[in-house]
Amino acid sequence: MLPMKQSEKRTRRLGGWGFEGEDFEPSEQLLTWLTKRVGPAGPPLRGDKIPIPDLKPRALPEIPLEVTFDSRDRLFHARGQGLPDIIRLRTGTVNAVPDGIVRPSNSREVEAVLAACRGRGIRIVPWGGGTSVTGGVNRPSGDESVLCMELERMADLVDLDTASGLAVFGPGTTGPKVELSLAEHGFTLGHFPQSWELATVGGWVATRSSGQESLGYGRIEDMVAGLEVVSPSGRLHLPTLPASAAGPDLRQLIMGSEGRLGIITQATLRVRPRPQLTNVDAYLVPNINRGLDAVRDLVWAGIPLSMARLSDPQETTVAMAIGLGSSSFAPLVQGYLRLRGIRNDGCMMLVGANGRPEIVGDTLAGARSILSTHRAVSLGRRPGRHWLRDRFRHPYLREALLDRGWATDTLETAVPWSKTLATREKVVSALENALSGENERAAVLCHISHPYIDGTSLYFTFFFRCASDTDATISRWAQLKRAASEALVNCGATITHHHGIGVWHAPWLKAETGELGLEMLSAAVQRMDPERILNPEVLLDPTDRLEV
Amino acid sequence: MLPMKQSEKRTRRLGGWGFEGEDFEPSEQLLTWLTKRVGPAGPPLRGDKIPIPDLKPRALPEIPLEVTFDSRDRLFHARGQGLPDIIRLRTGTVNAVPDGIVRPSNSREVEAVLAACRGRGIRIVPWGGGTSVTGGVNRPSGDESVLCMELERMADLVDLDTASGLAVFGPGTTGPKVELSLAEHGFTLGHFPQSWELATVGGWVATRSSGQESLGYGRIEDMVAGLEVVSPSGRLHLPTLPASAAGPDLRQLIMGSEGRLGIITQATLRVRPRPQLTNVDAYLVPNINRGLDAVRDLVWAGIPLSMARLSDPQETTVAMAIGLGSSSFAPLVQGYLRLRGIRNDGCMMLVGANGRPEIVGDTLAGARSILSTHRAVSLGRRPGRHWLRDRFRHPYLREALLDRGWATDTLETAVPWSKTLATREKVVSALENALSGENERAAVLCHISHPYIDGTSLYFTFFFRCASDTDATISRWAQLKRAASEALVNCGATITHHHGIGVWHAPWLKAETGELGLEMLSAAVQRMDPERILNPEVLLDPTDRLEV
User: ipTM value of the model?
Assistant: First the structure.
C-alpha cells in the first residue's frame, strides 16, 4: 500500500512539492469546474526555470563543522512549502536566504554548533523535511546572520526495543525510511501525514503532526514516548515512559515548540505490529449532517477503525473530477443523487481498518451496521483503493495548477462536534467572500479526516486565480488566510489542527492561549534560549508576516 | 456496578480512609499470612479517639470570604491520606495545621482570595478530596500563615454539551457526583481511581490521576478537553478542543502541576455514552512472564478492553485471603496450582469490557482467544464481580490493620514492557530488604493494572510491623519509601504512575526531568506564582520530608 521503493535517491524539487519527475495533473473536469467556480485562469506561474540568486553570505562565526554556502542549497533552505513560498521561488522574488547550511551527524555536533553561535547574535533554523506550510522554516527577517541546521544526516533507526514496541529515530528520518526500517522487524509507526514522503520525525514532533490514520494510531503526540533535545542552555533528556504522574509532561511542552525550546536530536516512538491487511470502504451519506452524526457514532461506539473521512458535498463532487473516484464511481454518485433528489447534498465517506484479517472484517462490518442507520449507501472498495494509491500525490496538483494560472492552498482546524457545522459554514463563507476584486472569488472544499471522541478536524482546500504579479497574488492569498483565521478564532476553533503555528499563524495564537498562557510559555522558552537563537520568529512573535 | 446512592450525606472519617461507619476487615487467613511473612503484630495504632489539638491560628490577612477556624476542620485539612498522615493523626502528633479554611463558591471568589493573599507572605493549599498519598495537601512546614482552600462548594456539573460529549465540572466534584450527574443524561466519564468516592475532578487533573478502567477510557489527561485556572498572576482559560497543533499543549502543563501553576476552577471533560453492560472475566496464567506477554498481546492486537489486571504470584495467593476471590475460587486456584505443579507461580488475570452487549461479547471472546495461546485457564465471572463490588473498599483495610499493629502502604510506577520484570524484582527486593531492624522485614505484593502500547504500570502493596512509637513507625515507612524510590530511579522507571509527586516524591523528580527540565518548569511556575503562594513545597522543592 505504501510506496516503499526508496532505495534510489530522488532529487527534491526546488520551488515545488516533492521530487523532480513526479507530477499530478488535473483532469479536464477539474479545470472546467475551476473556470466555472473561480473564473478563467490568471497569468501562469511556471516553475521550470527557477532563478537562483547569487547572494553574498553574511558573516558567520567559526563553526566546528563544515558549512555549505552553495547558492542552490541556500535557496532551497530559504523557504518551506507554503503557497507564498512556492510563488516567491518560482518568480525569483526570494530576497533573503540563510547564510550557510550546516549538517550535524549527531547530538554532540548539534551542541557544538549551538555553542559556537552563543553570544554572537546568530539565528539558527532547524530543518527537517522543509515541508512547513506556515512559514515555520523560513529564513527569519531580521538583520542577523542565519544558519540553517539541516538534519538529514541524523536520519536513522537508532534503536529498537521489540519487546516494548519502542523505536528510537534521528530527527531527520523521513516517513518512508521510518516505515522501511521498521518493516524489516515487523513493525509500523502508522504515521501518514500527506507530507509523509518528505517530512521528518523531528518535524512531526516539533509541529504536532497528525497522520491520515490518526483515528487508529493517534497523533504524533500519542506516539512520542521519550525525547532528547539540545537547547542553547543544555541538553534535555526526557525518559521513555508509557505514562507518568511525575508532574507536568515536559514532552508535551517540546511537542509543538517548533524549535523554540531546542533542537530535537532523538525521538523514541511507540510502534506496533505491522498490520496484515488494510481495507477502506466507501459510502455515500445523504447529507453532511447525517455524515457527521455517523462519524461521531462510529467513534462513540468504540469501533476500532484506522480512519474515517467525510467529504462535504462540494468536495464529493470535485473528488470525481480530480480522480479520487474511479470512472465507474462517478455515474454511481450521480445516479444516487438523482435517485434521492438531493442533487448537491450527498457526501462521500471512507472508513478504513487494519490489522489481522478477521479483525478488519469485524471492524468494517461493525461500521457498516452503524452507517446503515444513517442511510449510507455502500460504494465498495474501489474509491478507497484509489485514495490509498494517491494519498501522498495530491499536493503535486498545486504546482500543476500554478503552471496554468490558478492558485490553491489548504488550512485546517479542529472543533467540538457541536461546533462543526457552524465552523465549516463560517470558514467557507469567509473564504468565499475574502477577495477584494469585484470579479474575484474563491471556491472552497471541506472534509473531516481526524475524528475524536469530542470533535473533529475540518480541512479546507481553496482555489483562486493568480493575479497580474507576484505581490498581488500573495496579497490575495493573505486576504484569504486572514479572513479564514479570523473566522476560526471567532468560532472558538483552533488556528491549526496539524500544520503548526510557524510564522503565519502566530498572530492568532493568543486567541487560544490568552496573554497569560503565552507568557507562561515564553518564560519556559526564555529559560532554554535566552538569546533567541533558535527560530525566533515562529510561535511567539505575533507579527503579521503573511506577505513577506 | 457503582455505589450510586449518594443522596444521604456521609461524614468523612478523621485519621482514616473514607467515611465513618465504613470498614473492610481482614480475614483470619490474611492475619495468619501477615504473621508468617512480617512477624507478629506490633503495638496497635487505634483510631477511635483522635485527639484534636486546640492550636491558635497565626495571623491571616483580611479575606473577602468567610474563614473557618474550627479545630477539627483545621486538623482534618492538615494532612492527606498517606500512611504517615494517618499515623500522626491517630497518635495526636500532627503539630502544624492550616490557620484557617476558606470555601470559595466560584472562580471570582478564588481570585478574590488570591488577591487578598498577594504580598502578604501567605501560603495557600488547594484542597480537593484530600486523598493525596504523597503529602500533596499537607500543611507546608514553613513559618508563614497557611490558608487551606477547600473547593467542596465548587462541585457541580456546570454544563453538558450532549452533541460533543463534553461536560464542565467544578473542581470539587467527587467521583460519585460526576457519575450521578452524567448518568441522568446517559453519559459516563469512566474515571474510577481507587479513591473515586472521595477524590475530585480538580485533584485528578492536578495530579494526573488514572482510573481502574484506563485501558478503555484513558487517563485523566486523555479526558481533559479544556481548563480554567486561576493563578496569582491572573486567569488562564484553555479552550475546549479535541486536538490542536497550536504550539505546546498548555493543558498538559497544568495537568500534574499540583497547584503550583494555579487553582483549577473548571475542567471540561470528555464523556461517553454510558455502557449497557460491563463484564470482567478471570483467568489464571502459569506464571508472570506468560501473564505479561498475554497482556501486551491483548493491547497490541487492539482488543478494545476496558481493563486488564495481572497479579503477581504473591498477590494471587493473598487475593484469596483478603476476600477478592470467592470461597469457591480459593480451592480452584489451589487445585490449579497443584495440577500444574507450579505451587507459587500462578497469576490471576482480570480482563473487562463494557459497551453494547454484542461488543462486550465479541471483545471478551477476542481476549479469550489470545489468552488461550498463553495457557490461561478461565476462572469465570465470579472473581471479577467480587473485584467490581469491592474495588473502592480495599483502602479501608489499612486502618483495620493499624488497629491491630500492622502497617501497609502502596506505591506505583510505569515502565516499558522490556523493563517490567526487572523493575518488579528490584523494587520488591529493595522493599523486602529495606528495614534496618534484624527481625524486621516487609512483605510485598505486585500487580499491573494500567497497560499501554509500550509498557505498563506496576503497583506494589507492602506490609510491615508497627514499631514501639510513632516516630519509629514512620521511620520504618520512610526507609521503605526511600529504598523503593531509589530502586525505581535506578531502573529508569517513573517515580509515580498515578499518585503524583507531592512532597514525598519530590526528591526523585530530577532523576526524570533532569536539572534543565526542572528549571524550564520552574520558569513557568515563577511566571504564574512569583511569590510562591500556592502549595510551595510540592513538586519542585526536593527536600526529603518523609519523616515530617
Answer: 0.96
